Amino acid sequence: MGRLFAEPLETPNLSLNRIMAKAGGKGVNLKDKLDGNELDLSLSDLNEIPVKELAALPKATILDLSCNNLTSLPSDFSSLTHLVKLDLSKNQLQQLPSDFGRLVNLQHLDLLNNRLVMLPVSFAQLKNLKWLDLKDNPLDPTLAKVAGDCLDEKQCKQAAIRVLQHMKTLQSEQDRERQRRLQAEREMEKKREAEQRAREAQERELRRREKAEEKERRRREYDALRAARQEMETQTKKESSEIPKLSSVSHPSQLPRHRRSWFQALLKLLLLIFLCALSTVAVCRVTELQRQSLCISVNALYEDVVTALQSHKIVQNVLHQNSQQ
Questions:
Q1: Looking at the predicted structure, is the pLDDT value of residue 149 above 80?
Q2: Please, are residues 119 and 96 in contact by the beta-carbon 8 Å criterion?
Q3: Which of 132, 136, 193, 266 could serve as a FRET partner for 302 with CA atoms 20 to 30 Å apart?
Q4: Nearest CA to 30 among 75, 80, 105?
């Protein structure tokens, strides 16, 4: 009867509840599942992996997550770099994280019976991997051929060696392809820069040529204006130098201007004096002023002059000729 009422054994569901509660901040600690350096979370109906709690157990270098409902590994799973042996068999994993190669201490990896098709290229970085099982996965035919079977210890070790070599080859090809793309991009960038420099140089040359042509045009205009100005000055000087020559040619017999002016002024003065004298004589002989003392003197002077002229032979001849006429 004591056995009938014995405490029932812990079921996987109860274990799962505790682990998930811990992942949510409640329940028991994962240390309760730790046996030495091995942490067994298999058959726990896990849908997610409590990475944060596992990272707090660096002593757990052996982790068993087999027989759960895992479809993917969290992005921070690769931070569990202390793992040496990892069992992910009999889950539903479709792919591994791209940085899975960060688990550099991993030596034993069991991926039996999942849904993996390809492995990440970083898988080549698992340089310490000694054992690998990829059976019962829909692997890419090339990868499946490289991996081969893992029916015993020897085959699983050979699978690890061959897959690592294959992934290193893929990584090298990928690196070369990346280098080719980078080189092509660099060459394309250099080509674009060269074309840009050529366009800039062409634009600079075009601007320089336009400036030179504009300068040459302004210089021609300046030279033409200066030549026209000099031509006008030369013509003006030539015309100015020809005016005195023309005057001298037209009046060769004329006296200098200052001498002519004095001569003309003297003639005018004599003529004026003569007219004044003649007018005085006429007034004194015709008008009633002839009895004035001044006119008496003028009339006497006039008669003396006439008498003297009549006594001169030349004047007599002139008067005689005039009388005959």
A1: yes
A2: yes
A3: 266
A4: 80
114: helix, coil or strand?
A: coil
Q: What Cα–Cα distance (Å) separates residue 258 from each residue in 245, 254, 264?
A: 18, 11, 10
- Residue range 279-307, pLDDT digits in tens: 777 777 777 766 777 787 777 777 777 77
Which element (helix H / strand E) includes 305?
A: helix 293-311
Mention every residue, 6+ apart, whose C-beta is less than 8 A from residue 20. Answer: 27, 46, 48, 50
User: Quick one: CA dihedral 65, 67, 70, 71, positive or negative?
Assistant: positive
- Residue given tokens 């793992």 in the structure block: 83
Amino acid identity, position 264: Q
Bridge partners of 87? Answer: 64, 110
Q: What pLDDT does 167 receive?
A: 94
Alpha carbons within 13 angstroms on the beta-carbon side of residue 23 total 13
Cα 70 off chain centre by: 55
Q: Would you say 48 and 23 are in contact if contact means Cβ atoms under 8 Å apart?
A: yes
What distances in angstroms separate CA 320 from CA 54, 228, 293, one per listed residue?
A: 174, 74, 34
Of 71, 76, 66, nearest in space to 98 by CA: 76
CA atoms within 13 A on the CB side of 304: 6
CA distance 280 to 301: 12
Give pLDDT tens digits for 215-235. 999 999 999 989 998 888 888
Burial label for 144, CB within 10 Å (0-12, 13-18, 19+), is: middle
Q: How far apart are the first and last CA of the chain?
A: 209
Among 10-24, 48-62, 266-280, the minimum mean pLDDT is found in: 10-24
Contact 284, 295 (CB under 8 A): yes
For the chain, the farthest-separated pair of C-alpha atoms sits apart, in whole angstroms, at 214
What residues are paired with 62 via a beta bridge? 38, 85
Extended beta strands in 147-276, E state? none
